[in-house]
Amino acid sequence: MQIWNRARQATLSVWLALGASLAWADEVQVAVAANFAAPFQKIATGFEAATGHKAVAIVGSTGKFYTQIKAGAPFEVLLAADDDTPRKLVAEGLAVKGQTFTYATGKLVLWSSQPGLVDAQGDVLRKGNFSHLSIANPKLAPYGAAAVETLKALGLYDGLTSKIVQGESIGQAHQFVSTGNAELGFVALSQVAPPDKPAAGSVWVVPAKLYTPILQDAALLARGADKAAAQALLSYLRGDAAKAVIKSYGYGLRG
């Protein structure tokens, strides 16, 4: 009888612990910059395993997220592709002061799905033997703005404007190239050099001196200020497990 009672008590303890865990677990709505979609998927899996919380990602352009947040979109955390948007949201009372930080530094590349088209120095841009050059909308996407900066720094922007096709986000800019609608385009390194399955084609890693550093900041939005899952996600992003994933996708880290 004592053995049975002890077994029953142990089972009850397990169920009580599980019930407490399930009661504590929650979801957090995360607006994720398109360039960070793949690494965030892995981070979200690790986050759920470590905390019990579930991170629900909505992927898009940072500029569009800014407009949506101002209009009342129910996001609780923003993982932006820049540091300016989180700063503006804090100033406007839509993000929590002191709860922003740089989670990654992005790297811009010129990529083609065709092997050999893009050379190691990016001279293909000067030769101009292509019909379409894909970039993200520079008004909405920081990587698009970096692409324009690069072209202007090289003195090529005016001569190539007729060939430029714009995607709403860096994700769509990448899609134009991967589907062949553009022979080449400026995208994020993370999109063409994932650790599990590197993309085919040819690539030029754009020298950092040609564009303003792409500091990608996370922000705790006002809607998530009192939500444990949102705060837990930001804490997890600062940890070694998330940093390892971020670094594996070619991003830089600060600090």
Q: What does it look like?
A:
The protein is α/β, with parallel strands linked by helices. It is 42% helix and 23% strand. Helix 2 runs antiparallel to helix 11. It comes from Aquabacterium soli. It holds the Pfam family SBP_bac_11. One of its GO terms (molecular function) is molybdate ion binding.
Topology:
Elements (H helix, E strand, L loop, with lengths): L1 H23 L2 E7 L3 H15 L2 E7 L1 H9 L6 E3 L4 H8 L3 E12 L1 E5 L11 H4 L5 E4 L5 H12 L3 H4 L3 E4 L2 H9 L5 E5 H4 L9 E4 L8 E8 L6 H10 L2 H9 L7
Parallel strand pairs: 1-2, 1-3, 6-7, 6-8
Antiparallel strand pairs: 3-10, 4-10, 5-8, 5-9
Helix pairs in contact: 2-11
Descriptors:
D-Maltodextrin-Binding Protein, domain 2; 23% strand; 255 residues; globular; 2 domains; alpha/beta; five-stranded mixed sheet; ModA; disordered N terminus; molybdenum; 10 strands; 11 helices; metal-binding; molybdate ion binding; Molybdate ABC transporter substrate-binding protein
